[in-house]
Specification:
The chain is built from four helices and no strands. The chain is mainly alpha-helical and about 80 residues long. It folds into two domains: about 30 residues; about 30 residues, no CATH class. Helix 1 crosses helix 2. The protein starts with 10 loop residues before the first helix and ends with a helix. The mean pLDDT is about 90.
């Protein structure tokens, strides 16, 4: 399997990659491969209908309801 060596990797980037690897429960090498694969993968088309259906299923499973007025009030609450 091919391998590469990264030279002059900035300390900050190394720390960020290590932190990201920890968050994703991967090794640093696995994280770098995942980042590289993601960056060169063809863009996926977003299936809006599937996303809306999933959102509606999630919302239906919540144990509370809110009105449009309450949602608007929540949005405005932190904007003062």
């Amino acid at each position: 399997m091919p391998a590469i060596t990264l030279k002059a990797l900035p300390d900050r980037l190394h720390r960020q990659l290590k932190a990201r690897a920890v968050r994703h429960k991967r090794s640093l090498n696995q994280e770098v491969l995942a980042v590289l694969e993601e960056s060169v993968a063809p863009a996926r088309r977003l299936d809006v209908d599937a996303l809306l259906a999933e959102s509606r299923r999630f919302r239906a499973g919540l144990k509370f309801t809110t009105t449009a007025e309450e949602i608007d009030r929540f949005k405005r609450a932190g904007r003062r």
